[in-house]
Amino acid sequence: MAYDYSISEPIDKFCILMSSGLKSGQLKVHCKSFGTITKKDVEHVLEPGKSFGWDFKVRVPMFFYDDYYSCNFNWNGKKFDLTVWNGGPYGGTCEGGKTHWAVLEDGFYFRCAGGEGNWEKRFNWEKRFSWDGEHVEHVLELGKSFGWDFQVGNSWHSYYNYYSCNFDWNGKKVDLNAWTGGQGGTCVESKAHWAVLEDGFYFRCVGGEGNWEKQFTWEGGIHLGPSVDNAH
Q: CA-based, 20 to 30 A from 21: which of 52, 56, 108, 224?
């Protein structure tokens, strides 16, 4: 049975700030949270030189890496999706829990809010800075499997790399991080395996070590119940 985190008392307050360093044009921002984050959707239109931000809480800190904000940025016909906050290096480890992003013509810059540290360019508008592969698309028939190999350009930045996947089945859609430097990146031989069933999404490292663990449901909630056996 999935744990109903909606009844838990929210804890650990965080803040995301966004600034437009663009010289012209509106920056449209649409963010959606996943996991136990209390504030689900955020939409805003930023004028050049302006900033905005929002506060939120998470309910289950032990599952930080399942909590994240994925945002879509739209400016002058250019679109980009990225994770702007997670329980790791993007905000969860910032002193005071405050994250700051700045969007410029040449890309996306990050630092912990409060002035500590310099701005670091993390992405440009064209692609992620350390991926060798970019897009993977496939249609899976019942009972079938597929996979792909990829490389990470800088292992020191492994927690800044991830695969965000969209699953579409019978009118149901779910977005989730299928690989990060934490989940999957720490598997022996670096092989991650996902299984998609009617009741949700199951994960284990490839090679048979460990049981399948249900991570998400089709409704987008995190499953915190017991692991399942290897029957799937």
A: 56
In the numeric block, the tokens 């790791």 are attached to 88
Delimiting residues of CATH 2.60.40.2890 domain(s) in the chain = 7-123
CATH architecture, domain defined by 7-123:
Sandwich (2.60)
- Residues β-bridged to residue 109: 102, 121
User: What's the first-to-final CA gap in the chain, in angstroms?
Assistant: 17
Whole-model pTM: value is 0.56
Q: How big is the CA angle at 11 (ends 9 and 12), to the nearest 5 degrees?
A: 175
Burial 156-188 (b: 16+ CB within 10 A, else e): eebbbbbbeeebeeeeeebebbbbbbbbbbebe
Which amino acid makes up residue 17? L
Residues in Cβ contact with 95 at an 8 Å cutoff, skipping those fewer than 6 apart: 112, 114, 116
